[in-house]
Design a protein that fits this description.
single chain; 357 residues; mainly alpha; 2 domains; two-stranded antiparallel sheet; 13 helices; 3 strands
Length: 357
């Protein structure tokens, strides 16, 4: 060890965490803006509340990593650190674990409540409710096991010097068991929407787009498997400040990008947050496109036509088009249609082509 070169990945760690935290926050905020500007049929639901709550819970973990874990030695070899620094690393690592388990369960609930809102079938509704219960139980069990994996609790960050009495479960195996159950849940949650696509009354182009959206969850599952691989090869007593960076990195990628935190990896869960937010950016663009059209065509009218007539026509056209082009609104419409036994709720309005943006 004395002859080993000094290794320091602090700069890489800091850059990865900051970029992923900002990216996921922007995607979630974009979805919130879309909800505020979008059609009335597509306003906030439980899925959006849990998505936003996930971001609120998860972003502090990025602060913990940047402000506490990295200064305490994450990304450096443990034998280059002072004794006090090693204990500080363990303490902040433990706190990060708690945020991770809470955020993971909340993000899955966001997806499940979204499914519940758009898929009306009695059987699929029952499956979704059962999955919600399983997710809550899994999240609670994970949180409790993370809190009490050592006794006394402080032994989690003090055990390394062998000068105190206490006991711990194998922390790598606790994290690995959580990851395996999470992967199984992720795969199950992907099959739920894909099994419903065949019966949707939607154009095949949009149906393909929706399928691709749901398949983003496959990417998150792959990231989870990569993270699990790193967890299984870790020797927690050998070089934790260096070894745990890889699972933490993959862990963050999973939670930040569209449902990572920590104790195991800053990359894995970011994918879920971004995936959960991505499909809803187009209505924001259409909103500004509509406003631009109002400004252009209100000044280009035929002799004898009033400003009010043109503006009203354009607004009506774009508003209807906005509702029709929003995949989420269309899915909600179909759910309402299935419940009432009627046809599609969305309607179209024909207008002269010169009014189209």
């Amino acid at each position: 060890m004395c002859d080993d070169p000094l290794r320091d990945r602090s700069a890489e760690n800091r850059a990865v965490v900051i970029v992923l935290a900002v990216l996921s926050a922007c995607m979630v905020l974009l979805r919130i803006i879309q909800k505020l500007l979008g059609p009335s049929e597509n306003r906030f639901g439980l899925d959006d509340i849990f998505l936003f709550t996930t971001m609120i819970v998860f972003q502090p973990s990025a602060i913990i990593v940047v402000a506490s874990l990295i200064p305490s030695g994450m990304g450096r070899d443990v034998w280059t650190l002072s004794f006090g620094t090693i204990s500080e690393f363990g303490k902040y690592f433990w706190v990060g674990e708690l945020f991770y388990f809470i955020a993971s369960a909340l993000l899955k609930l966001s997806f499940l409540f979204f499914y519940q809102r758009i898929f009306p079938g009695r059987r699929v509704q029952l499956l979704i409710r059962i999955t919600i219960i399983v997710d809550v139980l899994w999240g609670t069990a994970s949180l409790v096991s993370a809190i009490f994996q050592c006794w006394p609790i402080s032994y989690f960050w003090l055990f390394w010097d062998d000068e105190r009495s206490g006991h711990c479960t194998n922390r790598v195996w606790v994290a690995s068991a959580n990851s395996i159950i999470s992967i199984v849940l992720d795969v199950w949650m992907i099959t739920i929407p894909l099994s419903q696509l065949y019966g949707l009354k939607m154009a095949w182009v949009k149906k393909t787009g929706v399928a691709l959206m749901f398949c983003l969850g496959t990417l998150a599952t792959v990231v989870s498997i990569i993270r699990l691989r790193f967890l299984l090869i870790i020797d927690e007593k050998n070089n934790p400040t260096w070894d745990f960076w890889d699972p933490i990195k993959w862990h963050r990628l999973l939670l930040h990008p569209v449902h990572a935190l920590f104790p195991y990896s800053p990359i894995a869960k970011r994918v879920w947050l971004i995936a959960r937010s991505i499909p809803w950016g187009q209505p924001v663009r259409r909103k500004f496109k509509k406003k631009r059209a109002l400004g252009i065509y209100s000044g280009s009218r035929k002799p004898g036509e009033s400003n009010a007539t043109n503006c009203t026509t354009i607004f009506t056209t774009h508003n209807d088009s906005e509702a029709k082009d929003d995949d989420e609104v269309e899915l909600v419409h179909m759910r309402q249609s299935d419940k009432s036994g009627g046809g599609s709720v969305a309607t179209s309005v024909e207008t002269p082509s010169r009014y189209e943006a």
